[in-house]
């Protein structure tokens, strides 16, 4: 990548969660490759998890550093060591975690002063509103970074401004998103808590985020014009701010080692993983992963295991360590599932090298919970997706994949409704059928796979020579002219 002549020092302030830290650290690489200096705020445990980036920076002569501050676990009433959303013992603690994340202004100010670091621009997570004050004090511009799609941003903006929720009485009543290019319906239950404004506290929080976004000098979004042109254009019109789409940021990872260790040390050896992938026919295998936070109950995992077995396809199944309960492990052993799969199934208990797996030619389908990072990684790899959204903004991403981009299928139509109810099961047979549909040899399936491949090629070009490459240049120039 070309480097610009002028020099900036970016201070990156991410929320301490894998789906935020990963694109933030990818963005650090992108900016550093353009000749800029990047300092990232970390906590000790997160810095240790992301240490591979520092090694990468040293080896590639890039100016990236971490500065670490202690996360106020005790003060926030969180167990010691809960420095990342994925280490909370219960999702109920996430409100406390978010609150604690918004008490870091003073410690960051002190840290910058003690270390004599003088950034020239802050890039802040959209939910860390205190960075507005910090930027004012330091008299430097502040940019908000969105880790969701423009489709999500535009849909939530339009639902909000058209006050659609006011006339909706039940969680299961479908309503249309106004003034978007496609016909998209949601129910309230499918929307994230922050978007459905379920309480006054949520409402206040959302208003604060909006305010902090509007006072920023601009917005960076991890997406690209090549993937969702009409939604990028639509959001640019309503955002009342500069919007620079600079993704897919995961594509900054070009070497096998940077694709392998991203966000955590994987629970599988690189050689073993590649050997298994290399032994499979092109586009034959399914990769299954539900991201860094989602938790499937043991009975759902059992149905999933049986559904995957019944699909008769080669598969890599990633199960979060936290989901590997005694009950589920006992079932796995008793049923001898791994033996029954007889070499065609690789089960990873813990962190998978997702980028390395998805970009391998053996992968022909991605069964995903539709977190935005996973969605983008699937799109960029040209892999058709089997969508199984569970919470947060995952329903937006599933609708984008299936109804707008037409590069994926729903695991089952019922699942879209069922999985909103705690404890509702998606059955083995539905899972098998969902996978079968994705690999369908008929005209629909062939067309879907073709579209997925073409979209992947466009997405990969975005960062090399397309819209995102240009937008990074425009963004840096804008800050330099500040
Ligand atoms: N990820 C990974 N290995 C895993 C689980 C997740 O590399 O075993 C990465 C994945 O590639 C993505 C991120 O973690 O970059 C998860 O973010 P996403 O937005 O998809 O979902 P979330 O974790 O927020 O549910």
From TrEMBL:
Protein name: Glycosyltransferase
Classification lineage: Eukaryota, Viridiplantae, Streptophyta, Embryophyta, Tracheophyta
Leading EC class: transferase
Entry similarity comment: Belongs to the UDP-glycosyltransferase family.
Documented EC number(s): 2.4.1.-
MF-aspect GO terms: UDP-glucosyltransferase activity
Alphabetical UniProt keywords: Glycosyltransferase, Transferase
Cited InterPro entries: Glyco_transf_N, UDP_glucos_trans, UDP_glycos_trans_CS
Domain Glycosyltransferase N-terminal: 11-249
Keyword set includes Translocase: no
